[in-house]
């Protein structure tokens, strides 16, 4: 592990390397530019949602300008919006959630918008050298404009079908919900099991900590009825240490993947999102992140972005940080990708193709 010397990769080379991403939230990975375009279509409702003047000002002025001035003003608006969102969200977990509620969810309540946002995310993945992606979201958050859960799924699945790389969706139950919603989501996951590869429990771990008992029966039902096509994963120990009960339940139900999992000892595969943990204040810096010690100890880890909007990184940028701070080599990157592939929900034919691409793509 990392013993073989390999030359340091620059960002361009890193982007060309084949990569597997298994922990990414659709509603945390919008492009700020697309967000502004969609907001513009809907009308900036300043009374409802506060947009900074340095966003709306240049965006509106751009409409009156032309050529390079127009491009410059738009770029200014986009950059200021990104800065505002990241700055606001990184102040606290409550702000992070508020940013999603105010600035993102209103944009994700129609099929054309859901399709656009999914299409963008897939294009960004392609540009970053990603060869297989598991993309997660909570369909129940997109029904406020009158869409049914099925209409939400149809819009996202439409784009997934046109993806240049294999994509599996992960359906997220949310910690503040209940067994009744989990049952509806489990049925939804099963109905769309050609495209759904995972069932997750997400959202605020502080308010509703641990492995929640109402989630387990539905999660296990999804896995059983899909004959294992749908894998289970759970956001756990991102912000809190596990209890003995949590550990026992994870073992008892054979859950193989932990979302984040940066606190506690796990033999399960961790879906680690280093920059996200820095942004939300769980670790002070990448240098303080435990991912390297997990990896050196032989624990199975994967590297993920969690959401490219608030972390301001694509997966290649995460890799660049691990290379710079911990000296990760191509052999290390190959290993975390093979781990991700092994625990992913892609078909065995797709897995075989991706494995060949990974092996050819890295010095090992
Ligand atoms: Zn997450």
Record the SSE blueprint.
Layout: H1 11-16, E1 19-25, H2 32-42, H3 53-64, H4 67-89, H5 93-104, H6 111-127, E2 130-137, H7 149-161, E3 167-174, H8 179-191, E4 196-202, H9 215-225, E5 231-236, H10 244-252, E6 257-260, E7 269-272, H11 274-279, H12 291-296, E8 301-303, H13 308-311, H14 315-326, H15 330-343, H16 348-361
Parallel strand pairs: 1-2, 2-3, 3-4, 4-5, 5-6, 6-7, 7-8
Helix pairs in contact: 3-4, 6-7, 8-9, 15-16
N-to-C CA distance: 9 Å
Radius of gyration: 20 Å
Name of the CATH first level of the largest domain: Alpha Beta
Assign a percent range to the helix content.
40-55%
Annotated CATH topology of the largest domain: TIM Barrel
Based on Cα principal axes, name the global outline: globular
Characterization of the model:
The chain has 16 helices and 8 strands. It has 364 residues and is of the alpha/beta class. It has 2 domains: 11-30 and 111-361, Alpha-Beta Barrel (TIM Barrel); 32-102, no CATH class. Strands 1-2-3-4-5-6-7-8 form an 8-stranded parallel β-sheet, with helices on both faces. Strand 5 (231-236), helix 10 (244-252) and strand 6 form a beta-alpha-beta unit. The termini are close together. The mean pLDDT is 95. It binds zinc ion. Zinc ion is lined by residues 23, 25, 235, 259, 306.
């Amino acid at each position: 592990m990392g013993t073989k010397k390999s030359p340091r990769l620059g960002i361009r080379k890193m982007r060309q390397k084949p990569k597997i991403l298994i922990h990414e939230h659709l509603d945390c990975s919008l492009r700020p530019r697309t967000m502004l375009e969609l907001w513009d279509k809907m009308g900036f409702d300043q009374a409802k949602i506060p947009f900074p003047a340095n966003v709306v000002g240049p965006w509106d002025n751009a409409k009156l300008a032309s050529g390079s001035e127009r491009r410059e003003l738009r770029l200014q608006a986009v950059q200021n919006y990104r800065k505002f969102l990241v700055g606001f969200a990184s102040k606290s977990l409550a702000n992070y959630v508020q940013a999603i509620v105010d600035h993102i969810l209103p944009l994700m309540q129609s099929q054309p918008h859901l399709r656009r946002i999914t299409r963008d995310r897939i294009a960004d993945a392609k540009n970053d050298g990603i060869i297989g992606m598991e993309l997660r979201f909570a369909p129940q958050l997109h029904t406020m404009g009158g869409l049914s859960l099925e209409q939400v799924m149809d819009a996202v699945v439409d784009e997934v079908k046109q993806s240049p790389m294999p994509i599996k969706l992960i359906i997220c139950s949310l910690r503040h919900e209940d067994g009744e919603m989990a049952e509806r989501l489990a049925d939804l996951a099963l109905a769309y099991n050609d495209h759904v590869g995972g069932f997750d429990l997400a959202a605020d771990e502080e308010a509703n900590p641990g492995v929640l008992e109402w989630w387990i029966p539905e999660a296990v039902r999804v896995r059983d009825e899909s004959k294992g096509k749908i894998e289970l994963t759970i956001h756990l120990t991102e912000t809190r240490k596990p209890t003995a009960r949590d550990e026992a339940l994870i073992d008892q139900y054979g859950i193989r993947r932990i979302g984040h999992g940066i606190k506690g000892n796990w033999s399960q595969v961790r879906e680690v999102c280093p920059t996200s943990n820095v942004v939300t204040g769980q670790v002070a810096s990448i240098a303080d992140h435990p991912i390297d010690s997990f990896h050196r100890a032989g624990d199975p880890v994967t590297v993920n972005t969690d959401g490219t909007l608030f972390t301001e990184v694509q997966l290649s940028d995460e890799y660049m940080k691990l290379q710079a701070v911990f000296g990760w080599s191509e052999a290390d990157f190959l290993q975390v990708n093979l781990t991700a592939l092994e625990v992913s929900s892609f078909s065995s034919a797709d897995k075989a193709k991706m494995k060949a691409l990974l092996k050819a793509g890295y010095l090992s």
